[in-house]
Specification:
about 300 residues; alpha+beta
């Protein structure tokens, strides 16, 4: 029993570190920030396209920053084996200051997050500043900016290094801020002029090749698959084994203490065992009838029996 208790305690101690490692966040790899102003709302559509490092062990816990003012994201997704984007389980937590964090349970190395952020509009002038906060290191922070329908005088800082015309006829500008070690903020500034309130999605919607469909966002804290529950299941199993091992260990200690004590039989038990009972047959000396062991008189003639 003692060896069994020790084995259970060892298993429990081994499983608890597994839960802790499953819950810790993995390093970020390449993050591309797509900024689509006035696409389908009079706001800035911000899209994170995250690619985890090749050495990442899946499933993994990924933490991404989002501005606290935007609330819950519009969509949190991961790439399935066929390349389609499916919903991912996440939790949003408010941080000190202007930021919140998204903790995503990722079964894939490719993630996508979408949210809307207010766009500064002053007459025909539009402007927006994206901030990647300190504390989140990435191997590369890149960007993609969509020029809205009817926009002119686009200004981007840092300047884009390439541009392309998408399937909808709109121009996409691309650039990179390089690796970020997390010691300082990184900023992307955008400005342009637009005289009307027309939305790009109304006249030039982005095709599926530029924006994979994700659907509605997964409710906060609701797991999309059993994989996201694995850390809690492992932790619960570890605690159960720890409790069972402790109980068996205490019982084995109690049994050992009892085995070391001298055993005293009760006086009545010992006295009873020392007495011998003559169970030989008794016959009446008068009529010869066999009597019972406890009989004092013959059951047939009533003569007192000789014992």
């Amino acid at each position: 029993m003692r060896s069994t208790a020790r084995l259970l305690l060892l298993l429990a101690l081994l499983l608890i570190p597994l839960q802790a490692s499953a819950q810790s966040a993995v390093p970020l790899g390449r993050v591309e920030v797509a900024l689509w102003p006035e696409y389908d709302q009079q706001a800035m559509l911000v899209i994170y396209r995250v690619t985890l490092p090749a050495a990442t062990t899946l499933p993994a816990t990924v933490v991404l920053p989002v501005p606290a003012r935007v609330g819950d994201p519009t969509a949190v997704a991961q790439q399935a084996s066929d390349g389609a984007l499916i919903l991912a389980s996440y939790e949003r937590a408010a941080l000190d200051g202007d930021w919140a964090s998204l903790t995503i349970q990722a079964d894939s190395a490719v993630l996508q997050v979408e949210y809307y952020d207010p766009l500064t509009i002053d007459g025909a002038a539009r402007s927006y500043e994206f901030v990647w906060p300190a504390g989140y290191a990435v191997t590369e922070l890149a960007y993609e900016i969509l020029q809205p329908v009817g926009a002119s005088g686009v200004q981007i800082d840092p300047a884009s290094t390439s541009d392309r015309v998408g399937s909808n006829g709109l121009t996409f500008y691309s650039g990179s801020l390089g690796a970020q070690d997390g010691s300082a903020e990184a900023r992307i500034r955008l400005g342009y002029n637009k005289a009307d309130a027309a939305l790009s999605a109304e006249s030039a919607p982005v095709q599926s090749g530029d924006l994979p469909a994700i659907g509605a966002a997964q409710p906060t804290g609701v797991p999309a698959s059993l994989t996201s529950l694995a850390p809690w299941l492992i932790g619960g199993l570890g605690l159960a084994l720890l409790a069972a091992g402790a109980l068996l260990f205490l019982r084995s200690r109690q049994a050992d203490r009892q085995a070391g004590r001298p055993r005293h039989r009760p006086a009545r038990e010992a006295e009873g065992k020392e007495r011998s009972i003559d169970a030989s047959a008794v016959f009446c000396h008068s009529c010869g009838t066999q009597a019972g062991v406890t009989d004092a008189f013959c059951r047939k003639c009533g003569t007192r029996l000789r014992t």
